[in-house]
Design goal:
Layout lengths: L11 E5 L6 H10 L3 E6 L16 E5 L5 H8 L4 E4 L4 H4 L3 H19 L3 E7 L9 H13 L6 E6 L2 E2 L4 H12 L2 E5 L5 E2 L2 E2 H10 L10 E4 L5 E2 H11 L6 E5 L4 H11 L4 H10 L10 H5 L7 H13 L25 E9 L3 H8 L12 H13 L20 E2 L2 E7 L3 E6 L5 E13 L2 E12 L1 H38 L1
Parallel strand pairs: 1-2, 1-4, 2-3, 4-5, 5-6, 6-11, 7-10, 8-13
Antiparallel strand pairs: 9-12, 14-19, 15-16, 16-17, 17-18, 18-19
Length: 494
């Protein structure tokens, strides 16, 4: 990352997609390089706990990208704007139509606001009838961004390898879980993966290179490999025995997407467009960008090694699961709302109790009834839900908007409360709330409230069907938190 002071002409930079995988990593790098960054987001709370959120040169503006007047105001005074929005997670099958409209609206607003250039990260792939819907959508967005006359600099990348990226998660889980893989014939398709740190260096470097305005560049790593070769490297880096990979021409993108859904954390709505795109060779056709913004390009093995090290030590900056809108907390007043409330006394101060609560999920688990959680997660995957495989981005800290297995963090008050919203497939709306009330300096009351608003008769039936398990799961969870909080308190005393 550069450490110089940015030129005055490029000082004010707007970034859309700030809560997403690439945007969330690009912003701190821009700030460190001296740029003033304006983050345009739907949900500012998702940025509140980022390490750079209170940086003196960072400004967060809540804006709906489809609101032209608000967008023009938010972009005013910015010389460059990054368009890093992708609706695949939030819009499902309708993502292409939504992305195209957002890009067209953004282009018009940028023109009215006086933005001098738009920077966009799209996808590699030869245009034509064989190009997948996903890659075709990326090209359509690229074209739409230039429709109002603002010059667009487009970077086209293939697979991006980095901790928390969708591509990395697909590879890791497929290789890790399946010693024998029956795969589509696309495993022999050529690909030029690129490390996320190389992508970020290109994105930032463009700001200092006026000759890149209005240009399109292919970007890729240091080698071209087939997906089969990439999988073998992943297995070696994970320390696994050699995987037997059998390509079959009968596996369609639809069947592949269901297979990816069952084995990896990604749901079928995300998996399908990605699986379809795997049939297209994605190789950089020129290397002009490497001469304009020189840097050492990581090999696939190096990129995987770096990604694994960040996952292992809990320093993942962003993840694919962080993107997408967060529905507001449901209005629990009115209608039928079931509640299961339990309370326990804990001989530990509030910070220790909160830390124990914040360790829920991921590799740590849910403190009790591990087999019941695994069964519930497996059932959720079978019906199209996220299951338990999303895990968590940080091993011992939860922030607003974080994915937590098949929950989403929708409320956090340090040392006081944590609210989780269910994202598993349910016949209703569910939430889990933890409230910590200090009784003394060394004792607290921990209350856990499970709320469920059923949808129709099936929802009511579901609630009464799972009630017997609450006594096992919730009681064990509270006792586990109590015990963990005591350990944390004792360590601090020591």
């Amino acid at each position: 990352m550069a450490s110089h002071e940015a030129p005055a002409a490029a000082k004010n930079i707007a970034v859309t997609g700030a809560t997403g995988y690439i945007g969330g990593r690009l912003i701190p790098r821009l700030l460190e390089s001296g740029y003033a960054v304006r983050c345009l987001v739907r949900s500012p709370r998702k940025l509140r706990d980022r390490p750079w959120a209170n940086h003196s040169s960072s400004e967060t503006i809540q804006v709906d990208l489809s609101d032209e007047a608000a967008l023009v105001k938010a972009l005013s005074g910015c010389t460059a704007a990054y368009f890093l929005v992708h609706s695949m997670i939030s819009a499902g099958a309708a993502y292409a139509e939504k992305d195209l409209k957002l890009a067209t609206d953004f282009a018009r607003a940028a023109k009215l606001a006086g933005v001098e250039r738009i920077i966009y990260l799209g996808g590699l792939g030869e245009m034509g009838n064989g190009l997948s819907e996903h890659l075709t959508s990326r090209r359509q967005v690229e074209k739409a961004l230039g429709s109002a006359g603002v010059p667009v600099t487009a970077l086209r990348a293939a697979m991006i390898i980095g901790s928390g990226s969708a591509s990395f998660e697909i590879l890791r889980y497929l290789v890790q879980r399946l010693p024998v893989m029956i795969t589509p014939k696309w495993v022999r398709t050529q690909c030029q993966p690129i490390a996320v740190r190389n992508v970020l260096a290109y994105l930032e470097g463009l700001l200092e290179k006026p000759e890149t305005i209005g240009q399109t560049y292919d970007i890729g790593g240091s080698e071209v490999l087939t997906y089969l070769e990439i999988m073998k490297i992943m297995a070696e880096e994970l320390g696994l025995h050699k995987r037997l990979i059998i390509p079959l021409p009968l596996l369609t993108p639809t069947l592949s997407s269901y297979w990816i859904h069952l084995v990896t954390p990604l749901n079928k709505e995300i998996a399908r467009p990605l699986a379809e795109g795997l049939r297209n060779p994605v190789v950089a056709r020129d290397d002009r960008i490497t001469k304009i913004i020189p840097q050492r390009l990581l090999s696939v093995r190096e990129a995987i090694t770096v990604a694994r090290s960040k996952t292992a030590d809990g320093t993942v900056e962003t993840s694919w699961s962080m993107a997408g809108p967060i529905p507001g907390d449901p209005d629990w007043a009115g209608g039928t709302v079931f509640e299961d409330e339990r309370e326990v006394s804990v001989n530990a101060p509030a910070p220790a109790v909160f830390k124990a609560v914040s360790m829920l999920g991921g590799t740590h688990g849910w403190y009790s009834s591990k087999w019941l959680w695994k069964i519930r997660g497996g059932m959720d995957r079978l019906v199209g839900g996220p299951g338990l495989r999303r895990g968590r981005i940080n091993p011992d800290r939860l922030n607003y908007g974080d994915a937590l297995d098949f929950w989403r963090v929708v409320g956090v008050e340090q040392d006081r409360s944590l609210i989780l919203r269910a994202e598993m497939r349910l016949p209703g709306t569910a939430a889990l709330e933890f409230c910590i009330t200090p009784v003394s300096a060394e004792e607290c009351k921990l209350k856990m409230i499970a709320r469920f608003r059923p949808r129709g008769l099936w929802g009511i039936t579901y609630w009464y069907a799972v009630m017997p398990f609450h006594g096992i799961v919730f009681k064990g969870m509270l006792e586990g938190i109590k015990k963990q909080a005591g350990k944390i308190a004792n360590v601090k005393k020591a």
